[in-house]
Amino acid sequence: MADYQEEDLQKFLKDVDEITNLIQGMNSADPIVQEKAVLNTEKRLLLTEEDQEEDGCRTTLASDVLTIQEQSLALMLQLTQSENGRSLVVSHLDLTRLLEALVSFLKFSDKKANSAMGLLIDLALEERFQVWFQANLPSVLPALTGVLKRDPRVTNTSALSQCIALMGNLSAEASTRGQMSASEEFGNACLSLMTRCEEDVDLFREVIYALLGFMMNLCLQSPFVSEVWAMEVSRRCMSLLNSQDGGILTRAAGVLSRTLSSSLKIVEEALRAGIVKKMIKFLKTGGQTASRYAVKTLAICTNSYHEAREEVTRLDKKFSVLKELLSSEDEILVGNAALCLGNCMEVPQAASSLLKTDIVQVLLKLAGGDAQKTAVQLNAGIALGKLCTAEPRFAAQLRELHGIEILNSTMKYLNDS
User: Fold this and answer.
1) Which of 37, 314, 358, 395 could cysteine-pair with 26, CB 3.0–4.6 Å?
2) What are phi and psi of 158, to 5 degrees?
3) In angstroms, rounded to a whole number, what is the distance separating the alpha carbons of residues 347 and 313?
């Protein structure tokens, strides 16, 4: 082992001056010097690629010698500061081994871990890296699963959260999150990390925040890892709704807005845990993003359970919160608010509480409007129909406003489009 390490060290030291000179040349203000350095760096990386093929898994970043690891990382960071450098690294290095080596730095508690993650994030900006990642995800998924299995108590939480945030960014691609969701081990590792971090939300705030963002993307994938997985994720997020951290609250609500629609059992459990009251509070005090998630959650709950409709009717007096959302410029908010309001019209006396308001005019304007999303027109039309059915006095108002003709015209347009 000693001879092996000495050989690595000698080889590394021999390369340091050459690589440093190349980096300096690439950063030169002289375009001729810079171009020459780029060409020489490309040749150097081609040699490195050949060395990798000969040496198997040996890379200086993965060396057993700590000094070599540190200096290799420092040099790589310098090299990737320029667009040319990043492009050359992505083109000529074995990216699977490079990714594995970089995530292995998470075992360090100092700045080396942050530097390694910063390097990985820089490389991930390259389009060729993203294309490679999608095509080779099965080969690197074990390394990423290993990241999620790390104990946050003995890991640099800043570096860990950066790595998870990067996974979240990459999972924005449908094919990527599809492969991730298909791995039960990967999904369970996400859940396990969330559970461990909940033991001290304040200490692991960065990790939880990044993980929730990542899981929001994973939950766009259908079907989920499993119904059991979705149920457990929902439980964890319901628990996080007790947090005082606005960012965590918003993202936990975001995950819930995507898991609830997968199973009536999950909705039932969430209702028992008081989700309606929490979402109404979100709508009263939260920002636009939180409100989006909250009203979508209420729409899902009221769509399936009369109990939820009754609770919304009781907590939102005269539907003042939902009515306010109907005037928003955010069409997703408006569409879900109209859906929720329409669902609540099935509660006895609920429609009567809206007498002496302009609810008919508001819904009619939305139903006959030119919203980009047809869900706004459709849900507003349905809500108006339920309102008039529940309270005949609204039907009289609708006729006075020529609402029947407007609704018929809207429905014809929606059917034809």
Assistant:
1) 37
2) -65, -45
3) 8
Going 325 to 329 to 335 to 336, the CA torsion angle's sign is negative
* Per-residue pLDDT reduced to its tens digit, 147-180: 999 999 999 999 999 999 999 999 999 999 999 9
pTM, whole model, 2 decimals? 0.83
What residue type is 267 in one-letter code?
V
Strand, helix or coil for residue 299: helix
Identify the CA nearest to 273 among candidates 261, 265, 285, 284: 265
Alpha carbon distance, N-terminus to C-terminus of the chain: 72
How far apart CA 26 and CA 35 sit, in angstroms, is: 7
CB atoms within 10 A of CB 43: 12
Tokens representing residue 119 in the block: 């390097």
Question: How high is the pLDDT of residue 12?
Answer: 45
d(CA 88, CA 44): 10
Domain boundaries of the chain, sorted by first residue:
317-417
Q: Is 161 helix (H, G, I), strand (E, B) or coil?
A: helix
Regions of the chain where pLDDT drops below 50:
1-2, 4-6, 8-10, 12-14, 16, 23, 47, 49, 52-58, 60, 63, 65
Q: In this predicted structure, what is the pLDDT of residue 23?
A: 47
Q: How far is CA 414 from CA 149, 193, 378, 384, in A?
A: 49, 45, 8, 16
Using CA atoms of 24, 29, 31, 37 in order, give the dihedral in degrees to the nearest 10: 0
Distance CA 280, CA 291 (A): 9
d(CA 359, CA 378): 16
57 φ, ψ (degrees, to nearest 5): -85, 5
